[in-house]
Amino acid sequence: MNLPSKEKTGKKTKSKITTPFPSLQMGKRVVCPRCGNDWHFYEVAEDVMLTTRYIQNADGSFTPQSDESSILGEVKFFCGECNTDLTQFHNRLMEMLF
Ligand SMILES: [Zn+2]
């Protein structure tokens, strides 16, 4: 008589998930490492090319159609309190910008 074996084979051991950036789990908030500010930030675009398109009307006047701006230089990101360069967090800003 064969009893069904209740022994489970191939036990899976859960490996602990470790994240290299534990701060990323803290609600994804950027905190200034120098002064602890996590409210006020600003961004500086170094070279911005602004293109405005116009239509010339029959009477010679111009009507603007659209503005296009493209950033040619670096975009930097700073703490609004102590002006520390937080450009390393700029990607986070882009991800969390709504
Ligand atoms: Zn700061």
Characterise the protein shown here.
With 98 residues, this protein is mostly beta strands. The protein has a domain at 32-95. It has one helix and four strands, in the order E-E-E-E-H. The chain is flat. The model has no long low-confidence stretch (mean pLDDT 83). The chain binds zinc ion (ZN). Residues 32, 34-35, 37, 79, 81-82, 84 line the site of zinc ion.
Q: Helix amount, in percent?
A: under 10%
**CA-based gyration radius:** 27 Å
Shape: flat
Order of helices and strands: EEEEH
Amino-to-carboxy terminus distance: 67 Å
Unreliable stretches (pLDDT < 50, length at least 5) are: none
Strands, count: 4
Pairing-aware structural class of the strands and helices? mainly beta
Bound molecules: zinc ion
Number of helical regions: 1
Strand order of the largest sheet: 1-4
Average of per-residue pLDDT values: 83
**Largest sheet: number of strands, sense, barrel closure:** 2 strands, antiparallel
Estimate the strand proportion. Answer: 25-35%
Q: Could you write a compact summary of the structure shown?
A:
By secondary structure, the protein is mainly β.
Spell out the blueprint of helices and strands.
Blueprint: E1 41-45, E2 48-56, E3 62-71, E4 75-79, H1 90-95
Zinc ion binds next to loops.
List keywords for this structure.
two-stranded antiparallel ribbon; 98 residues; 1 helix; two-stranded antiparallel sheet; binds zinc ion; mainly beta; flat
